[in-house]
Write a structure and sequence with these properties.
The structure is a homodimer of 263-residue chains. With 263 residues, the first copy, chain A, is of the alpha+beta class. In chain A, 21% of the residues lie in helices and 24% in strands. Chain A has 6 helices and 12 strands. In chain A, helix 3 (81-90) packs across helix 4 (94-102). The longest helix of chain A is centred in the middle third of the chain and has 11 residues, at 147-157.
């Protein structure tokens, strides 16, 4: 048995190596205007921040989608019979349901007014990630068509070529509340895989694969509130996970269907 | 359509209010020794850090369990028939399977050597959170019996009475890699609920409830590696979510069974 101040005297801080002293800081990019279709998002972020090659710039999906014009007008949508049936059941706008269905390859659950779908990208989430908040009336914002490509494009245009994560808020099975996760990644190791490495007692670590990109997305969300107009956040101190290559992207974070226990 | 440098000139930084400039920093507590049963964990953390009332101290479940003696020796376990059957099927130690079953109220999936269970606390995770890594051979570390109570106890004993989050790495349905989540909370708002509030276009925000505690747990994990001996991490800058009362705890993050779509 150890007790404080007896078995374990505090060690002088000077003895601690730099490597163990790393810390992470998370800073929002202040001053960005409301983003609309056609905006030069990388140029705007560059104008309001100073990014370095070691930074991770976490950008909300919503503004990436808006800048890319991944927006549909409900008036332009003709709902299918299936969409009309689901909409009646859930008392929703059949055109909105139609948009959700078009953005999906599979409906996993349709309960209590929520459609849990697999998106065309492979993400499992509510309503295919289609969103009506913080947008004009009668418009819906879709997920970017290829969020990894969006992240690569943004990275290539940001000063210093920092890592880029495109983040969206996803709910979780069995748990209340949403966390931000990475739906697009360029230049950040998505997973730090400890499988096969040994722990401090020389046990082989199993099933320890840390989702760095999802945790970075979650961390970034802590400095913004949902109406704060902080769609871009810089996470500093993740140098060891930033890569010169754009890497495998967020698509590598999708669990293959064959390993999926919860269809 | 906006373009950088035309429609949106950078605003002078002095015009930005302090409230919008908030940033979060994440610092590991360096120097903590290996924690064993009976250790005064709060005393040790206090000896190696300087905590203030606005801080959030995120502590790994593993060291809380170890300090509390929530450890079982495989040699002391007699497996049930059910445990022996599952162990044969998965080529596992029947005693370890027995421990997992005892820590659960329900087995949701038993596939490919993984038991997805609902723990006695209500968490859904692999193997009831029972863990053999970073522990002595022949021993298994359980989740704390009441992680919210553990968090409250640690909070009351840490200098300045900071918020405390007890974190564990959980896998996620449909996604690769684990993220740290909050299994015990004292003094931190578990969820920042935006439901009913309006967005910037006066739309009522729906289904926007941000899991602050889970995101804080995930953020803290970014500064440690799985063998780094950094079981305690201080997250600073979350002042607006830190509460004088201990609050509803991590139990409030468990989705009620009636709302659970993925049994």
């Amino acid at each position: 048995m150890h007790t404080a101040g007896v078995a374990h005297e505090p060690q002088p801080v000077v003895a601690v190596t730099r490597a163990t002293m790393r810390h992470v800081s998370i800073v929002p990019v202040d001053g960005l205007p409301e983003i609309v279709a056609g905006d030069d998002l990388a140029g705007l972020i560059a104008a309001f921040s100073a990014t370095t090659p070691q930074d991770v710039v976490v950008i909300s999906q919503k503004v990436v989608s808006k800048a890319e014009g991944a927006v549909v007008r409900l008036d332009d949508i003709t709902p299918s019979r299936r969409a009309r049936r689901l909409a009646r059941k859930f008392e929703k706008d059949a055109r909105a349901v139609e948009v959700v269905l078009r953005q999906s390859t599979e409906v996993l659950r349709a309960e209590r007014g929520v459609l849990i779908t697999r998106t065309t990208h492979g993400f499992v989430c509510a309503n295919s990630g289609v969103d009506a908040s913080n947008t004009a009336t009668g418009e819906l914002v879709l997920l970017p068509e290829d969020p990894d490509a969006s992240a690569r494009r943004l990275r290539s245009r940001l000063p210093g070529r920092p890592a880029v994560v495109i983040a969206d808020s996803f709910g979780r099975a069995w748990r209340q509340g949403q966390c931000d996760i990475a739906i697009g990644i360029a230049g950040l190791m998505p997973i730090d895989d400890w499988c096969g490495r040994t722990d401090r007692n020389d046990h082989v670590l199993r099933a320890t694969a840390v989702s760095i990109a999802d945790q970075a997305a979650a961390a970034a969300d802590l400095v913004r509130s949902k109406d704060s107009g902080h769609p871009a956040v810089i996470v500093r101190g993740l140098d060891q996970y930033v890569t010169a290559a754009d890497g495998p992207g967020a698509v590598s974070l999708i669990r293959p269907a064959g390993q999926d226990m919860f269809r």
